[in-house]
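Hey, can you fold this?
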Amino acid sequence: MRKLSKQFAGWLLTLVMVLTMVPLVGTPVYADAPTGYESYTEWTNGNSLPTEAGDYYLTQDVTFSGTWTVPSGAAINLCLNDHVITGAISVERYGTLDLYDCNNTTERRYNIDSDLHRGVIADDGEYSFTGGYITNSNGGGVVAHGNFNMHGGTIFGCNGNGVELINGYGVFGQLNMDGGNIIGNGNGGIRANAGQSAVNISGNSLVKHNYANNGGGIFAQTLTISGGTISENTAESGGGGIFTQGDVNIQNATISGNHSKGTGGNNGGGGVLCTGNLTMTNVTITGNDSTFLGGGVFCTKNLTMTDVTITGNKASSGGGGICEFPGKTVALNGNMQITGNTNTAGTESSNLYFFSNSSATGGITIGSGLDTDASIGVSYNSNVQVVSSAF
């Protein structure tokens, strides 16, 4: 009898252990907070998202119709935690949203329902995106007249712009991108319509495979690039990679494989079309093409370059590498390589080409720091003079 009691006690103990390990049917089980985010509040609702300020992590996928709005003045940090959000997001004026995947063990997406016009709207608020995906919007991925800070993640496959900056409440949107990817969007990668909207790109940022009428990769008034790659974008008219209407500074970047398909007027510029002053340092521009002028670069104002390589680009008319407007100056410094560019018209205007139908005089300024190994091919259809020389 005592032996049976001992056996029964053992069975009972085993049963208790099993029951404590297996949840009851119908009882939801939530994962522990991701490491490093134990102070965050778990969000367990699968049909909505928080509207009060605070730090949250998801415990399950969330799907909702309509738009989740971050209220004015609220600061919300939301960790996807390997989960998916399906719905649209609006950040009201003075609101702040930081959306990221703090437990990035698998690829997860912030999905946009196909019938929604915008993915994220930052109404003069501040929105930060660090990980995950913004995709499938019928309109743009992110529309901001506040600040949009992109530190990682991917915006792709939207029918509109990947990121669009606009003017609202007298405030101009600003993009600060130091990481992540903007890929395959149907109305351009980045578009800054408002004149005072600023685009700042750095780090390992990638803008690729986007399409637009002007500025396939980037269309902007104020643009600063200090790192990243702009590649394989297409413009139906001008600026396959970049179209800018103001002064531009580009450093430590690669602009490659972009296409400009327009002819005549303000078209051209397979890699870059700039109607302001353009300054470039340590930039590689290669494999771009234009069906008009400037396979690599088409610049209508002054151009300053240091340690820039422009090679393997192609234009149908003139300036396979660079086409410069009449009466403007090109300043060359450091290790400049402007060679190996082609012109499908079969003329000599294939590398650095000064285009003009007037008597205006353009100039080449050779800086004192120009390397003796520099190689630059020059051709012209206007008056060109060497303004100063290092030799």
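Oh, and this one too while you're at it.
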Amino acid sequence: MTMGEAHEAGTLERTEGTTVTAPHAPAPAASPVRVAVAVVEPDDHQRDRLVTMLGSSVSAFAQLEELVARLSSGIGVVVVLGPSCADEATLAMSARISAQYPNVASVRALVRAATGAGGAAQDADRIDGLEGATYLDVAVANLAAALEASVSDTGAAEAQRRLSVARNVVHSTEDAVAK
């Protein structure tokens, strides 16, 4: 048994053989988190390679449209776009998906800000009006817009405004995490 490994009745056993009592019994092991993962890649070889890398429980699609037809608003999916998806048609389709799913739009804003691609502020402005948008979607998108503004010509004033929007949205919910 290795150092720090859980042992029965709330004790820990050290490799050297001395035993110490833990202040509290260890919590039961949590169930593994299940996340739906989809790979979209038109090239068969590349798609198979990505599926092999990500594991057998991945759903594979040749086109983004195939995946979109099977999406449900109640089930979250991590979508991995393969290298062949870096074309205008696929990127335009991802923009349409963002318009339908506010959580995707907020993450898209964050990715755009982090990569310096631009457009995070426009995404943030759109999200507030999307049906089904949560306060978290609005907050994340405005944090993305603040990040983008902090390194742009709009500078500190716009970054501060976006941070204020994000804070106000979260505080207005009285969410326990925000307190």
